[in-house]
Here is the input.
Amino acid sequence: MTASGSAGSGVPHLDVDPFDMTFFADPYPAHELLREAGPVVYLDKWKVYGVARYAEVHAVLNDPATFCSSRGVGLSDFKKETPWRPPSLILEADPPAHTRTRAVLSKVLSPTVMKQVRDRFAAAAEERVDALLEQRSFDAITDLAEAYPLSIFPDALGLKPEGREHLIPYASVVFNAFGPPNQLRQQAIKRSAPHQAYVAEQCQRENLAPGGFGACIHAQVDEGAITASEAPLLVRSLLSAGLDTTVNGIGAAVYCLARFPDQWQRLREDLTLARGAFEEAVRFESPVQTFFRTTTREVELSGARIGEGEKVLMFLAAANRDPRRWDDPDAYDITRRTSGHVGFGSGIHMCVGQLVARLEGEVMLTALARRIAKIEITGEPKRRFNNTLRGLDSLPVTITPA
Amino acid sequence: MPAIIFIHADGKPDRVETSGGESAMQAATRHGVDGILAECGGNAMCATCHVYVDESWLARLPAIADDEDALLDGTAAERRPNSRLSCQITITSELDGLVLRLPDRQV
Here is the structure.
C-alpha cells in the first residue's frame, strides 16, 4: 500500500483497495495514507477519485448539483449499468425529484414523531437490560445490538411478525451492493432473491399495520404528496437503511464503552451523557464508512480537476478522524462536541433516520449505564465484513450489575 | 464582525463574536456555548439548536420556512411564538447585538 508519484492532473494515484478484507480488518493506517496523500486522490484499483479529509468530504456532500446521487451512490454508474434493484427514490435521486420524497420521510421520522415513540423505545431498552442481567454473559452483538432494534423497529414500521429474519440479511445485501464487483458484492446479490421477495411484499400497503411508519408513508399518497407506486419504494428505504445501521451504531457504542472503561464510568456518573456517548461512537467508528457520488460536469475540487461522469468515493470514517478538523481524533470522548461529524452524512442526503438512531442509542445506553456497573470483554471480538458497513459479528462480554 | 448574545436558562449571558455569514448555531458551537447541541450540524433536521428570540429582535429575522416550522413542533422544550432554530438564522451586520435565550433542554 503506497502513494505513488502524482500523475497528469497532479492528483496522487494510490494502489489502496478500500474494499479489501485486509483494509476492513484495520482501515486506520490506510485512512491516514489517503488523507495525507492529498485533498483528492485517485484509486487505480477501481478507477475512482477519493476524498478522505473532512473539508473535501463535507464539500462533496454539500454540492449535490455537481456530485450527484442519481447515478448511484455505489461504484456502479446507473448511466452505464443496470442497477441490481430498482433505484431508491430518495438515496439514489437528485433534486427536484429527491426534494418531494425526502419531505415525506422527514415528516414520518420527525422530532415530533420521536416524542411519540420515545417512551415505547425506552421501555423496550429496559426490558432488554432485564434479560441481559439474567444472562450476565452474552454476545453484545446478537443479544444487544441486534436484539434491541429488532424488538422495536419492525413493530414501529408496522411489519408482520413472520419473515423478519430477512431484514438484516437484506440490509447486508444493500450495503454490500454499493461496493465494487468483489466477492462480497457478487455473493450478496446472488443470494438476495428471497430477501428481495420478502421486502417487496412487506412494502405493500395492506401488509403494514395502521399507525406505523410504513402506513404513515402510504397515507402520504392520500395527501397527494407521492403516488401509490412510489410509496412501497419509500417504505423499502426504511427497510434497507433503518435496521442494520442502528445495529452497527449501538454495537459501536457498546464496543467503545467496553474498551474505554473511563468513559463508561463518566457515563455512569452522568446519564445525560448517553446521547453524546452514542453520537461520539458514530463519529469514532463510523458504521457507514463510505458512499460514492458521480460528477455531473467537470469540476475543480481543492486544486484537482475531475472530469464529468467520474465516481468520487467519500471516506466518511476518515473525515471523522481528520486531525485538521478534530482534536485528538483517535480518542473516544463522550463529552466531545461532535456537531458536524459526517457519520450520518451531511447536506440534502443526510440520514433521514438519524433521529431514530439517536433515540435508540440514547435510551439503550441510558438503561445500560443505570443498571450495569461494569462491561468486560471476555473473548476475541469478531468483525463482520461488508463493503459499506463497519461493525462486529460477535462481542462476547460479561456484565456486573450496579 | 457582529456579535450576538446567548442567555442561558440560568440567566447567565454569553457574548459571541460571529464570523462572516455564519449562522447563530455555528457561532455558538464554534465558541462552545453549552445549550446549543446542533446534532445534525446545521442541516435543519434535528431541532436541537432551539432558541427563544428576544421579542425586540423578532421582526428583524427572516421568516420561518416550512421545514423549520415543522421541526419547531418537535423541540424538547416548549415551543413559543418566539421559538426559532438557530441554524436558520444567518448573522448579518443588521443583527449585531441579537439576543437569543436558550431553553433548559434540547433533547
Notes: The CA atoms of residues 177 and 304 of chain A lie 28 Å apart. The mean pLDDT of chain A is 97. The longest helix of chain A spans residues 111-135.
